[in-house]
Description:
The protein is α+β, with helices and mostly antiparallel strands and about 375 residues long. It has helices spanning about 20-30, 75-80, 95-105, 160-165, 185-195, 240-250, 265-275, 285, 290-295, 300-305, 350-365; strands at about 10-20, 35-40, 50-55, 60-65, 85-90, 110-120, 120-130, 135-140, 155, 170-175, 195-200, 215-220, 225-235, 255-260, 310-315, 315-320, 335-340. About 45% of the residues are buried.
Amino acid sequence: MAEQDFLPLQGFDHVEFYVGNAKQTAYFYSHAFGFTPIAYSGLETGVRDHTSYVLAQGDIRFVFTTALQPDHPISEHVKLHGDGVKVVALTVDDARRSYEETTRRGARGVMEPRTIEDEFGRVTLASIATYGETVHTFVERQDYAGPFLPGFKSVPTPPEARSRSAGLKAIDHIVGNVELGKMNEWVDFYARILGFTQLIHFTDEAISTEYSALMSKVMQNGSGRIKFPINEPAQGKKKSQIEEYLDYYKTPGVQHIAMVTDDIIATVDQLKLQGVEFIPAISSYYEELEGRVGKIDEPMAEIARLGVLVDRDDEGYLLQIFTRNVQDRPTVFFEVIERKGSRGFGEGNFKALFEAIEREQALRGNL
Length: 367
């Protein structure tokens, strides 16, 4: 077995957000993004200090957790960061071995392997620290048939909840923002600790405008199922989106989550109908689009109407669009992406996207 496969990862298990009000946040993601509530943990299940709601769409599972007392560590996390991602959980065959392999290579352990059980079976969990206060949790769940994890109860799904599904299928990648000069440190972390390899490197020349710039390297695991782009700010005349994030999140952290759809037109139409706000592209982008990317299957008029961006590489093309920030602080947002062969990240759209984000920053007075 290749050295890079010493940590076989099956995929993204779930993403847990620490939030100020889990009940209201779950309602937002259910009604706006079309996620279905599937499980709950809280006072009614015997948990006294926090509450968690689990929502799913396709293979995506989001967990929204809030503390029930002001002196709880979750409350401290929310006080510092606002609503944000705490846990990026990865499904593995052997959580104990995953923990031992990564800590032996230098990872800082956050939670030693522990097995929890209920009438549906058993799950083994273990966690390591990554950038900022973000952690990776290894989840071994092949012997479990419950709704999420032991300690959670299933929740009934009303028929209208299914009708709100927007066709989001899976997590494509999760992007982290780190401080200036720290990108290579975390690239090395994923290579050395988790056996990842570098897929692509974007320089500040590739991701820049007249005013600001960033640098990014994309790390992926051996199977290519897990992709973690790592961003850092670059020197510019004005404040970059990464600096704005760090100003408000206060530490490195997850900037955005990209979610895959098989029909971006239908998905974005549904999300907009349900109240999701997207960063608009300028009309001139579409005047030059066909000449840049060639013929695509989707009607160009529909792509322009929705503000979807398109990019092509040697393997095909992709379509992508980015939401506005989904909380009051300008920190976390989402990407919706449809891949038509391309395995890239929309390099040809970087300038247009960056200029659109700068327009949003200017409205906030943060450029």
